[in-house]
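Hi,

I'm pasting everything inline rather than attaching a file, because the server keeps stripping attachments. The sequence lines come first, and each chain or strand is labelled.
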Amino acid sequence: MSTRHVLLGLLASGPSHGYDLKRRHDEQFPEARPLAYGQVYTTLQRLVRDGLAEVDGTGSDGGPERTAYRATEEGTRELSRWAGEITPPAPFVTNEIFAKVVVSILSGGDPAAYLRAQRAAHMGRMRELTAVKSAAGAGLATVLSADYALNHLDADLRWMTTTEDRLTTLTAEVDAA
Amino acid sequence: MSNRSKGSGPGEGRGGSPVDGTGTGSTAQPLLAARGLVKAHGRTPALRDVSVELRAGEILAVTGPSGSGKSTLLHCLAGIVRPDAGSVAYDGRRLEELPEKRLSELRRTDFGVVFQFGQLVPELTALDNVALPLMLAGTGRSLARERAGEWLERFGVRGQAKARPGEMSGGQAQRAALARALVTGPRVVFADEPTGALDSLAGEQVMAALAHTAREAGTAVLLVTHDARVAAYADREARLRDGTLTPLEVTA
Ligand SMILES: Nc1ncnc2c1ncn2[C@@H]1O[C@H](COP(=O)(O)OP(=O)(O)O)[C@@H](O)[C@H]1O
Ligand SMILES: [Mg+2]
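And the predicted assembly:
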């Protein structure tokens, strides 16, 4: 995930200062990891260094002094290039669950018990996400973010079910290798 | 953040409700409790020694692959089918000890059922379909229709009150079916794949409406589904495989 492009995107709608960007980011991407203020600050510095953003001015509005930033023309061009660029569909599969199943077989563990426990944890997270998106007043951004996570967890679960059904064959194959 | 009435699952234990986990002991008396259920269809075993509990007001998802015995379990719990062995207790009463007449009366007053499709009377409007259980229980026609209208409203299909089942979308018909299952104020709703005939968005909306309304009314739901996204609306999951409940580890 390119934080610099996301911040640049938030700047595209008008000048903003660091704290404001953090707040808008966390609002816009409700299920994402919240941005640390330090990360916002260093990213803004780099955007300025690369000529993609510039200082719009400083002001205090009665509070502490804050620097506002705006996107440069080059920044706007870079943004539209990035936004239209295809995201590579997962070139490498990192599947920690599968790795644990295989390691469990290799070391004479209980992969079926692990898969059941993992399933319970996945279902627990799916319930939490379902509660988040069903809560009164949940906005569309919240619903869509939760749905994205729910669909991925659901895909994991289906995969775990098939794997559990075929553990005997997999065990024979892993042991023979 | 959650509007559910009972704590559930990993990371959600709160409010002093009993720690859950399928088959573990709880301090609260369950509303519905099955012990050692065995049932075969002819020579095909459908349930082999299944024990499960449903607590008042909770939504319990019964999941598992096709043919694992989910519907058979629901039918036994709802008193529609008598098990070959084992017992079902509802609110302290053993269903297998009740005469057929008492059992069907209990089903009418305390239970509601929703299936995948086809439970609405095709000749009746949505409004009359929902009013029907009330009228069968002795409520006068105009009051029954008034109440039916309110329930259609709660499920967002009041606009379809005059439509017959064939004139409604699948999702609208399922909402009317839910209104019909809940209109008598049952303590338990048995829902067998209530979203099974719907596309994923309509299914999700129907499930959200069921979960929301059941929680508001304090109605317990036994929800049969093979879909994890639907099961995620429940407080707990009981998972069947080959007629046996798989113990689900409760992760801290
Ligand atoms: N009426 C019936 N006659 C014969 N076999 C049945 C009947 N109903 C269910 N079965 C069998 O019992 C088993 C469990 O079925 P069911 O409870 O319908 O499972 P599920 O709802 O999980 O798909 C399956 O093997 C199924 O083929
Ligand atoms: Mg079934």
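Chain A touches chain B at residues 113, 116-117, 119-132, 134-136, 150-151, 153-154, 157-158, 161 (CB under 8 Å).

If the labels don't parse on your end, tell me and I'll reformat.
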